[in-house]
Amino acid sequence: MYEPNVVGDWHEYDEHAGLRVRVHRLEAAEPPRGRDDAAAGLTYFSVRVTVENRGARHYGIHLEDGQMDVRVGADGEGAFIDWRNSQFIEGFDVYPLRRATAVLYAAAPEAALTHVDVQVQLRVDEVEPSAGCGRAASASWRRPRRPPHGHRAGQPGPPGQRLPEGPDGEGPDGARHRLTRVGAVSAGCRR
User: Residue 3: what pLDDT?
Assistant: First the structure.
């Protein structure tokens, strides 16, 4: 890259067709789990890094601690990165026309925040497609299908009807869900 990208611009990855990254929403923000003691006297800010897949394949994305660097001020001094409060992308499959976003919390002297540089070193794994579908199957949280009237979950229904199986759990939204391993259905691809 010969010239820097501007915050908010998309950067295309030539090695991975359709994959692009954007650093955006650079703003003053307090961390959700409280300030770190090492950041005493510094001004906190956050920045988002979004990975978008506009190609035909899906990729395994890793954007974790150590893969982002934040420099501030005219001399490019390192900012304090609050790893405890930041949210990373750890081995997430980004399917075509989907996005994943990491949120990074950092702190620096307020006078140095006139110039902020963020460098991202994205790790990408190409995922092999599964037979017949074009995309790999995965386990994901989803709401169980409602059993027909008169039947309760876990009890047999009419012949030929299959109720969801798998261990119960609590999904990311706090609602009770059932984790099901889906072999033929993945990201909207149905056989």
Answer: 56
